[in-house]
Amino acid sequence: MTPLSQSVPTSAAEKQVLLDLLIASRERFLSSFAGVTEEESRRHPSAGCWSVLDCVEHIAGAEATMLRLVKETRRPRSAEAPNREQFFFDRMGSRARKVEAPENGKPTGRFASLSDAAEHFANARGATMAFLEQNTEDLRATEVTHPVSLVGNVSSFEMLIIMARHAERHAAQIEEIRITLATQAMAGGAA
Prior knowledge:
The chain has helices spanning 12-32, 38-41, 52-72, 85-91, 114-134, 156-190, and strands spanning 75-76, 142-145, 153-155. The chain is mainly α.
């Protein structure tokens, strides 16, 4: 994918890059647990590790929370604030560095089923994409405080990158969980 421009204001082409990123990460995330049964979605690969359902619940809630922040709490951003778009674009989807979810982002069993959690995510992502498509302001001129204190203040543009790449990060986690569970099942069946 083409690196994002650092020019201001947000152009139609840059909004399209963000929209394409949101669409692609939505599809990757939803496909990461396609075919997983309700029973399988609740299995934990080991003590203290999230299940597939836990990951989907986390992303569904995080998407809604981050969108609420962008819609309701954005404020003017200083011209001297650092531009970290490329950093988030390049690194946010990586699982190389583990980051603990904030307390309100941890799974609690909010959804009765995997399909309920997936629907909540899909609806929240749809609302995120609608916000981007309808927004006419300079997304670099406003900022929000990210829920993970380590991240700090980010431009609204950066937050949308984070939202897309966050879903990709957890798609990779779900793929890891599925591989681990399949390996465990094979080892158990071979004994």
